[in-house]
Amino acid sequence: MGARDQRGHGSVSGRHGRGDDCGLVRRSAQGGARPGQGRQQGAAEEGDGRALVAAALRLAFPFVVTALAWQAFSLWGPFPPKLFPGVDKIIAAFVRLTLNGILPLHAATTMLRLLIGFTIGAVAGVAIGMAMGRSRRAEELFLPVVSIGNPIPGLAYAPLFVIWFGLGDLPAVLLVGFAASFPIAVNTWTGVKTVKEIWIRAARSLGAGDRQLFRSVVLPGALPYILTGLRLGLARAWRVLVAVEMLMSVSVGLGWLIFGAREFLATDVMLAGIAVIGLVGLGLEKLVFEPLERFTVVRWGMLTR
What we know:
Mean pLDDT: 82
Oligomer: single chain
Order of helices and strands: HHHHHHHHHH
Number of domains: 2
Structural class: mainly alpha
Largest sheet: none
Radius of gyration: 32 Å
CATH topology of the largest domain: MetI-like fold
Number of helices: 10
Strand content: under 5%
CATH architecture of the largest domain: Orthogonal Bundle
CATH class of the largest domain: Mainly Alpha
């Protein structure tokens, strides 16, 4: 009995030992996969880092080239440094105006006017463009007016807006919205008209109502044109707003800052204000329009980047 017990105990121990060995093998095999996974994850992160660096270099390259060319022209060009300051002088003016709070105040005021005016223009332009694209009567009513008003420079309306609404922020904001609405309306109308009729008929045959048809067919089909119209409208809004701030007796704004610096020949201040306008435009493109495109028309396969 003792021998059998020992053999039985030994066999059980052997089975447990083999089980433990198998468990160790499995655990070691599972643990051995982790370094490979870590290397793959590290390689992916390294690839993402390289892509970010490459994108940053591509974005910075034209600015570096422009800055070098500007600096060379300021040193060896025909203009004196007072009239054509170098990049170092412009950066110094930018830093000085930022630290003392002057530039942030003017930039924030201009951005607020732009936001309100452009929002008004975008809502009105998209609504009119959609109506023209979906209704023959609306097209006959609005298209002649839009076609006449679109090529007229926004500043041509400035004297009328001053007479109608006086001086200050109100005419500036309304004129910005009015000028921006024309390219937005034209491009929205074009986008709606280019939606294929077979898509609309197919959606109708599947039982889509007017709201579902608009949400699932018309709006996605017209969105690339709408985004183009918004870009054009924003560019026009910027041009009109900066000029209006110079003319409509507003006391704060980038246009007012640039125009006021002209009286003192402070070209470094003028160029710092102009640089802020350009940087804000670039920021809106990179932070608003490109993400909006990626999450809509690119994601839907209607536009490739």
